[in-house]
Structures are given as C-alpha cells and as structure tokens.
Design brief:
The complex is a heterodimer of chains A (349) and B (272). Chain A is an alpha+beta fold. Chain A has eight helices and 19 strands. In chain A, the strands form four sheets. A six-stranded mixed β-sheet of chain A has the order 6-7-8-3-9-10, sandwiched between helices. A five-stranded antiparallel β-sheet of chain A has the order 13-12-11-14-19. In chain A, strands 2-1-4-5 form a four-stranded antiparallel β-sheet, with helices on one face. In chain A, strand 16 and strand 17 form a beta hairpin. The model of chain A has no long low-confidence stretch (mean pLDDT 91). Chain B folds into two domains: 40 residues; 212 residues, MetI-like fold. Chain B is mainly alpha-helical and 272 residues long. The chains are: A alpha+beta (349), B mainly alpha (272). Bound molecules: adenosine-5'-triphosphate (ATP) and magnesium ion. The site of adenosine-5'-triphosphate has 12 residues of chain A, from strand 2 and helix 1.
Amino acid sequence: MSSVELKKVEKHFSGGVVAVDAIDLDVPDGAFVTLLGPSGCGKTTTLRMVAGLETPTGGEIRIKGQRVNETPIHQRNLGMVFQNYALFPHKSIFDNVAFGLKYRKVSKSDIAARVKQALDIVRLPGVEERFPTQLSGGQQQRIALARALVIEPDVLLLDEPLSALDANLREEMRGEIKAIQQRIGVTAIFVTHDQGEALAMSDLVVVMNKGRIEQRGAPAEVYEHPRSEFVANFLGNANFVSGTVAAVNGKRVSVVLADGARIDVADSARAVEMGEAVNVIVRAEKIELGGGGLAGTIAAVDYLGSTARYDVTLAGGQKVTALATIRDGARRVGEAVSLAIAAEHCRIL
Amino acid sequence: MSMAAARQPGEGRIGWALLRLWSIAVYLFMFAPIVVVILLAFNSSRSGAFPMEGFSLQWFGKLFANQSIVDAFKTSLILAGTSGALATVIGIMAALALVRYSFKGKEGIQTFLSLPLLMPEVVMGVALLMFLKFISMPRSFAVLLLGHTILSLPYVVLVVQARLVGLRASYEEAAWTLGANRLQTFFEVTLPLISPAIVGGFLFAATLSFDNITATLFWKKPGIETVPTKIFAMLRTSISPEINALGAVMIVITILLPLIGGYMVRRFAKTK
Ligand SMILES: Nc1ncnc2c1ncn2[C@@H]1O[C@H](COP(=O)(O)OP(=O)(O)OP(=O)(O)O)[C@@H](O)[C@H]1O
Ligand SMILES: [Mg+2]
C-alpha cells in the first residue's frame, strides 16, 4: 500500500516561480524515499506540501489513502525533522520530546515511558533534564528525531537533517537514521542534495530537477542506468565523450571519436543510426588507466589518498576525468597514458 | 593614520586630551541637572535652590502628605500600567501579523503604525482632540489612556517585530507538525520565545507614558493630573523644594524601571 501519494502536485509561488511542476509520486509503506536534486529544484517545497506547511496550488496529496489537501498541519500526524533541529530552546529535552504527546491524549505516566523509550532509541538516555543548548549538534539532531518519532507518525519527513553536522558525524548519523527507520518500520521521506546520502540510505531515490522528477528507482538502478544526462551528471562524475556512430549491432554500438579512436557501447538506451553524432556517457571510476585503446596525456592530478582524480586530455583534444585507485604512486602531469573503457560501462542516452 | 601618529606623537596626545575633555563636558551637561535635582531634594533650605544648608528628608515627607500629588502619582502609574499593557497586547498582535503573515496593504499598515513616532506630539495632541470634538466625546481618563496607547504602540511593535524577525519560523512549524494548533503554538512556543521583547516593549511603553507631558496636556480632563502635568502646574507658582523631591522620585522610577526590566530579562534568559 502507498503511504504517501502525490498526484500532479504543483506549487506556484507569487512572482511566477514554479517550485514544483505537476509531480507524481508513490511512497510505499515503510519505504525510505529520498528526494535528491540540486539547490532550488523544489525538494523542500515538495516535503513542506506533504507536511502541510505549504499549500499546493494544484493536484492532490494523499496520506494512507486519504486526501489531506484540506487537513491542517496539526491534524496530519507527521513527524518532521528540520535542518536546524528546531528544538524549543526554552523547554527541557523531556518537554521537547513530550511536546507532541501532550496533544494526543496520552496519560502522564505513558508520556514519561514513551519519552524514555524514544531517547533510548536515539541512544541518548538520561538527558531529560538538560536543555537543547547543553547538547552537541549531533545530539540535538537525535533529540529532534526522537521528538518526531515519539508521536508514532504516519510518515517521517526529514529536510537535510545532516547538513549542519560535520563530515564524520554525518556518516555516523546517516547509518543510524537508516537503522532506526528500519527497526521502527516508519515510512520516511528524506530530502538531500548529497548523492552519497541518497545512495546509502534509500530504498527509492527520486532525482528532481527544476520542479520535476527526472528519474526514480533503486539507488543502484539510478546510478548505473541514468536515463538522462542530468541524472548521469548529478549522480557522480559522469564523462560525456562525443563521437560518431560507426557501427550498430542491435543494442551494441561502436562510436568513433574525432581522433579515430573507438569506444564500444554494450547497451545503448535508445536506437541510433549510422553516422549520428552522440555523447557516450561513462563514469570517472569506470575508466581504467593503462592498457586500453584510447591515448591521452594527464593534464591535472587531484591526489585523494587511496585514489586520485586525473584530468586526461585525449588525443583528439577532448577532456575526460578518471578516478583511479593508486597502486605504485600517483601518475604525473604530462605523462602519456592509455585508457581502457569496458563496453558495459558506456551508455548512450 | 598610524604613520601620522608616529611622526607627530604630541599632536595625537593633545587630540585625545581634547576629545576626553569634550566627552566630560557633554556628560556634565547631560547629567549635572539630574544630579542637582536629586541633591536639592535633600536640602533642608526652604528656597529650593543652592546653597545646601543641611540634609533633610522633609520634602519627601511633604510630598506624600500632599493628597493632590499622591493622586497624580496614582493616575500616572495606572495610566502607564494600563496603556503599557494595552500597547503591548496590540503591539504583539500587530507585530505577529506583520512578520508571520503576508496580506494586502502590509506596507501601508507598517508605515501607519510607525506614524506616531514621526509625527510631532503637538500635532498628535491637537488631532486627537479635534477628532474627539468631531464625534462630540468629552475629554476623560479613557481618552488619555487611548492617546498614550497610540503614542507608545510603535515602540512595542518595533521591539517585538525585531525579535520575531530573528526567530526562525521552524520553531512554530515544528510545533504545528507535532499537533499543536495555532493558538497552542502561540502560547507554548512563540510567546515564551519573544518574552524578553515583550517585557522590554512593555517597560518602554510604560516609561514613555509616565514621562509624557506635551500630548497629556491636550488630552487630560481639567482636574486630572499626571505627575509631569502636576510638576508643570506647580512650577507656575514657584520653584518649591517639593518639586525637587518629586523630580527625584520621577528620575528614580524612570531609570530604575527599565534597569529592573533588563535585569529580569537577563535572569529569565539564563535560567532557560
Ligand atoms: N516562499 C517562497 N516564495 C517564493 N519562492 C519560493 C518560496 N520558497 C521557495 N521558493 C522557490 O521555489 C524553488 C524551490 O525551492 P525549494 O526550497 O523547494 O528548493 P530546494 O530543492 O529545497 O533547494 P535547497 O537544496 O537549496 O534547499 C526555488 O526557486 C525557490 O526560490
Ligand atoms: Mg531545501
């Protein structure tokens, strides 16, 4: 069953801004869905419409099968986690977490028990008496999560909850949020512009661009089989190598570059014709240095520790980026290299 | 600048000395009259002027024995308290509307609300008087109350508005998503978070009302006196030492009240 359904939902702001442009989305019960996209693509607006914090200018939003367009926010039973935590600074941690229970006819003793349980879930027992400013950023975000979960929401909404944390903590919290979500089985919609977060946490990744959904699918599917250049580019370091179709054999296509070098594509996403100009898409980490058919020179090196990012100028002048594991020292600028690209890692869109 | 100072160290020093002298003169000019009033309030001489002849509390005693002065005090305190409270309640609502909601004519209302700030008080005084005459309503305490509320409203709006702008909407939004309706959210979240501004705004408004004389002279019913109008009336006959004592009390109240308020706000903020 779908937990949340969006049907042709749109949001126009005054001044002609189309923040969300007729999107359709089904969030299955218990799923972890990520809205992923660049800044300004409408992720937050979409989430806020589900929460009731923005009113859609068109379309229908259903939660558990019920249309909620007209339901006021405080009757929607949703848990929301904000980027800046939004813990009430004048209330103790106990009162913060208990806040939602006060409006739900829960007895005093049950409130205490459920607050304790929620704090245990986020692994912060015993902080009831403290105030938000007496906790670290990561701890505050855990409390915000506890506050949202304690009301047993129909859907958990998270708007970039990790972006205010430092890198190490972010990775830790990422795993923790996912684990808690799975344990409780709550449906979650998570907004982020970080592809790493999206790929690591989600059951379903929804890539958005300019108020529309570009592609949706399991993380591996969206990553391995991008259906548009935008998705390929946004999800990781895609190279676009332009050439001309020289041979077509079913889905197998050979593309010849300007310098005469050839790239084979195992699985073209669309039918192409002989002589057609196309872009071959290949991810940086799929390009191997050494022992291939493409000749080039290293133009720049980014040393990243265990790997290095190489900007390589091909013989015909095109530039590609390769991400390679370092074995016996990184290569140097000016060094001549040959590149190998396996046919199954190349795509034509 | 530092180079010039290095070349002519003497000039810099003289400049600083002059600046210091100037500052002292300014402060003297500002505070000497206040100090004089307070000093003379304790003077035992009948003249109400220098020289000091001896220390005495008799003028304060006389002050509180004078029923008309005590009445003026009562009027002033009630007026300051009620007009301050009224301005605070209206001001909070106006500030909330201006900051948290968008509606037609918002700019206009914003300007309108700050108009009493810019308008000369005499004009305000006459305007309200003419209006009352137009609707044939006699001058009364209620008119005074209304007038003082209008005069201090913009200050409350400004103070509360500044606080609200600095307060992220996500606190209120979080409360809504957790199940609190608008009213519950206002009392549980918004009000406590803007309470320092409310206390500040109220004290500001009350002090303004307590101090006001120009507009009060236009609005008050003959026979009703506030402390400032009472002093004004007393001055017309003579400068009596009682006036100094009254002035001293006024000074203490108008300085102490905001100080206490500021302290309370800080205490409040700390315990949170
Ligand atoms: N209240 C508003 N009034 C007018 N335009 C708005 C409003 N809120 C958002 N927008 C516009 O709608 C578009 C989508 O905004 P939104 O906040 O949903 O983006 P986002 O995907 O969350 O971006 P980010 O990653 O930067 O948070 C943007 O162009 C933004 O400028
Ligand atoms: Mg956003």
